[in-house]
Amino acid sequence: MEYVYLIIAIAVVLFATTGALVGNTVRRRRRLPPARTGAETPPAVEKSAVEQAGSEPASGVGLLERPAAPAARTAADETDVVAAPPAHEVPAPSAGRLVRLRARLARSQSSFGRGLLALLSGDDLTDEDWDDVESTLLLADVGVTATSELVAALKERTAVLGARSWSDVRDMLRDELLAQIGTTADRSLRTAADGRPGVLLVVGVNGTGKTTTCGKIARLLVADGKSVVLGAADTFRAAAADQLETWGGRVGAVTVRGAEGGDPASVAFDAVKRGIADGADAVVIDTAGRLHTKVGLMDELSKIKRVVTKQSPVDEVILVLDATTGQNALVQARVFTEAVDITGVALTKLDGTAKGGIVIAVQRELGVPVKLVGLGEGPDDLAPFEPEGFVDALLGDPVR
Ligand SMILES: Nc1nc2c(ncn2[C@@H]2O[C@H](COP(=O)(O)OP(=O)(O)OP(=O)(O)O)[C@@H](O)[C@H]2O)c(=O)[nH]1
Q1: Which of 202, 209, 264, 365 could serve as 348's disulfide partner, Cβ 3.0–4.6 Å?
Q2: What sequence ranges are listed for the domain SRP54-type proteins GTP-binding (predicted)?
Q3: Which portions of the chain are predicted below pLDDT 70?
Q4: Whole-model pTM?
């Protein structure tokens, strides 16, 4: 009988031991996938490694939050760790943008371009007609001197032509407007000079579209295959740096920023340093443009330029002007030219005005070319300025 009790006891012990072992193995198997996530996710809702990789944030921040368990990592886990680079936008190439966006100049086209064509197409032009031509030019913000020159040239040519077809008038007007705008200036943005990044300083009064223009310039350069570093040297308004960072982030451009209210020159210096270290093609620096005192503005801009120059020459100083502000834009332009040597103008909001003639007035006033025109609020609504494309957009289709 004692043997029977002994056998039963041994059987009970064996059964208990086997049960525990099987239980552990099953539990361990169930826990394997959660080693990737650190959570006891029920198997029924677990995703495959590929599915999980697809749903991870591109930054890989989620991965860092998991408990480190290198010994338990599998090949699938390693693939997952290499987070996909964030997908950056690659805007369409910049060439021909102005022509593609010509419809945005509709307001200038109807009153300035077509208005002039209609006036000049009359058979016998009276003094009254010429007065109308003059006021059309002045209302389009062409400026007094350029208007006088244009009227004189047009009077002479109509006298020589005599009877004129519509296309004769269009050709004549096209020639004279192009002569005023100029077709020989270098309107390209200088980038990647002598194996170092081109440095572009963007200046202008707040509200002219300066920060968005910096972002759009970055997109233009990326569209043309260049790499860009942005410098948020408008430390006066924290939102400007955030805005710039968002613009840059979309096309993979790093933004160097400083503390709110910090020294703009030091941010500009760091941005150029970063651009050189990264081997970037261009460094685009946004600046604050408060015009409270001319002296303050001059000091700030010349300090930025001086500090940046310790590392690299400044290749471009782009003045951003709001085309809708007319004469005010010219007053601002004058102040900025006294503070810093402007190399080109970005004329924004041309889509919102009938005063396309400001292109002529600004160039005359500053003696520097309009290099860029803003034709809308969209990310790719900034176009390299092309005189012929611009004049053709104003005058409409040559064939009638
Ligand atoms: N219609 C139109 N709007 C534009 C154009 N360029 C800029 N804007 C708008 O103008 C407004 C002001 O632009 P910002 O870039 O913030 O102006 P800012 O000069 O940098 O001002 P701060 O950031 O304060 O220095 C925004 O709503 C832009 O979308 C343009 O070409 N056309």
Answers
A1: 209
A2: 369-382
A3: 1-87, 192, 291-293, 399-400
A4: 0.78
